[in-house]
């Protein structure tokens, strides 16, 4: 999957204004708890001076591959009232407008089963791809456990059951309806990482370890988002896994992240042999 990652910080949110820092050691998954799948709409609802919650990213469930970065990676979020804020990179997944919540509860009715299923599964796929990218970037194993007893990727509900987070049940209340589980999600992330690490994919050796610098292979930077997405699609057809992210006023196409520079150089050479100009950044 080609990720389309945009930076859209919630500068009006009090969490952003406070700007407290933390070092993330894993990922915490949330679903929004509202009949909304658009990352932009969710971001806009949070980007207010009176909104007492914030996450590092929002995964769209209406558009394939779309993710908004809403707080800097190193900024502490206000997402779970406890351990997640202190130690984890937190993100929301959109749900669906084909549902209706009972106010003040996690109970809901579905108004369009087909569209609901499509939205939730799309959000799930997007989250798998995003978590695979974050795990590659940070050298995290999604199937390993942290000192807290939670997995490297955990949900708000898992934090609640461990006594580490507030009393929310996401995403269980949504995913149960479609037979989705966090155990399967973590396995899907691991598979996505392994597939991207096969020859011709994101790299032939996935990054390992943590707290290290990564050598990132970039293949183009564009002022036009459409041009960046077109290059990513072109590379994907040639067997190169890519994602697009926004950095300042540029849309950049990234093709890999590696612990060892020799592996990054090898990916760069493969791209050059395909006729593309590529370079390695740290």
Automatic annotation (TrEMBL):
Matching InterPro entries: Amidase/PGRP_sf (IPR036505), Cell_div_SPOR-domain (IPR052521), SPOR-like_dom (IPR007730), SPOR-like_sf (IPR036680)
A single BP term in Gene Ontology: cytokinetic process
GO cellular component, one term: cell septum
Any Pfam family the entry gives: SPOR
TM spans (from-to): none
SPOR domain location: 209-282
One GO molecular-function entry: peptidoglycan binding
SUPFAM superfamilies named in the record: N-acetylmuramoyl-L-alanine amidase-like (SSF55846), Sporulation related repeat (SSF110997)
Protein origin, superkingdom: Bacteria
Protein's recorded name: SPOR domain-containing protein
């Amino acid at each position: 999957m080609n990720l389309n990652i945009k930076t859209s910080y919630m500068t009006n949110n009090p969490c952003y204004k406070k700007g407290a820092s933390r070092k993330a050691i894993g990922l915490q998954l949330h679903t929004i708890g509202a009949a909304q799948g658009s990352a932009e709409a969710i971001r806009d609802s949070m980007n207010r001076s009176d909104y007492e919650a914030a996450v590092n990213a929002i995964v769209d469930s209406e558009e394939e591959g779309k993710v908004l970065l809403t707080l800097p990676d190193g900024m502490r979020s206000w997402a779970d009232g406890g351990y997640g804020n202190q130690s984890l990179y937190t993100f929301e997944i959109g749900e669906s407008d084909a549902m209706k919540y009972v106010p003040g509860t996690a109970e809901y009715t579905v108004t369009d089963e087909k569209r609901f299923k499509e939205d939730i599964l799309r959000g799930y796929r997007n989250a798998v791809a995003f978590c695979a990218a974050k795990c590659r970037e940070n050298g995290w194993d999604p199937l390993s456990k942290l000192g807290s007893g939670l997995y490297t990727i955990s949900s708000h509900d898992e934090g609640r059951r461990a006594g580490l987070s507030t009393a929310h049940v996401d995403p269980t209340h949504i995913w149960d309806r479609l037979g989705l589980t966090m155990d399967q999600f973590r396995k899907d992330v691991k598979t996505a990482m392994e597939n991207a690490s096969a020859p011709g994919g994101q790299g032939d050796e996935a990054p390992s370890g943590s707290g290290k610098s990564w050598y990132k292979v970039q293949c183009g930077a564009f002022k036009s988002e459409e041009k960046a997405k077109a290059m990513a699609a072109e590379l994907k057809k040639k067997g190169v896994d890519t994602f697009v992210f926004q950095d300042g006023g540029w849309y950049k196409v990234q093709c890999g992240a590696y612990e060892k520079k020799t592996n990054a150089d090898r990916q760069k050479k493969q791209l050059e042999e395909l006729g593309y100009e590529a370079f390695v950044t740290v």
